[in-house]
Amino acid sequence: MFQAFHRIGRRRALFGSTAVLAVAGLLLWWLLPLNEQSPSGTITFSTGTPTGVYQMYGKLLQGAIAKDMPHLNVRLVNSDGSQQNVSRVATGGADFTIAAADAVETYILQGKPGAKRLRGCSRLYDDYVHLVVPRSSPIRSVADLKGRKVAVGPSGSGVRLIANHVLEAAGLDPAKDIKPFKDGIATMPSLLEQHRIDAFFWSGGLPTNAVQQLSRSYDIRLVPIGSDLVEKLHEQGGASRYYRSAVMPADAYPEAQRGSAVPTLAVANFLITREDADANLTEELTRTVIASRDRIGAVVHAAQLVDLRTAIYTDPLPLHEGARRYYRSIKP
Questions:
Q1: Does residue 286 contact residue 246 with C-beta atoms inside 8 Å?
Q2: CA 272, CA 105: separation in Å to the nearest integer?
Q3: Which of 69, 70, 72, 226 is a good FRET partner for 176, with 20 to 30 A between their CA atoms?
Q4: How far are the Cα atoms of 189, 205, 310 from residue 184, in angstroms, in the given order?
């Protein structure tokens, strides 16, 4: 009788173990994605100038991607800014990038190569236009730049595009009414300190490190760009419709602003790619961008403004299918 009970006990134990394994298998099947592998290979991400927000954001995003997609290698490439970034992605020189809405729209309106293949992944954060002068400067408005030496950024930069539009809205010819310097944010501050230029334009997230450092070593001021200019920009049509009135918070550059907010204009930035980018890769990269907002935002404060509620608004670009899949997957 003891042997019979022993055999029954062993049978029950075996049955119990099998049941546990079956349940564990079902749980594993439920939790793991089917027929999907973590993206691998190498992608190229076009960033920006070495001291700009695009480049810093790109570096931090590279680190976040390494954690989420360990088999994917991300190669970062510096650029002059938005205009060059859009061109690179559209023509296959890069796989992903950050670019401002006005630069994207300009590229599309000009019918440049690959424009129809561009796709959006996420709206990120806004760039704010900075017009920086020495505190003692008599320049109080954009119109006061007439006849002055002004750094407006390299030809492939987003700041050059915005500076030209703003100057035109103020009634100035960017080629004739100022003495334009093609320098970018890497050299603009030192040129201003050395009195080789009278002012410089910059468009970037808040705060931009190069401007912040300059404000701590040299007495500068930010020139207001009022809503009247924004109205004139909208009258220009085309890419200028993406500019909106904004206020630079008083604590963006405390030393320069001395407790005062500064009226200016802003334009949205997007994470963009091409239509032929792998859907699984694009879905996972979009997921990483949203999930890493707080980690990146702790260093790049502009990234704190990445918002899931507005991320899908990438006009003038349609969403990439992979990005659309991600947003659908998290929709309640």
A1: no
A2: 13
A3: 226
A4: 9, 15, 30
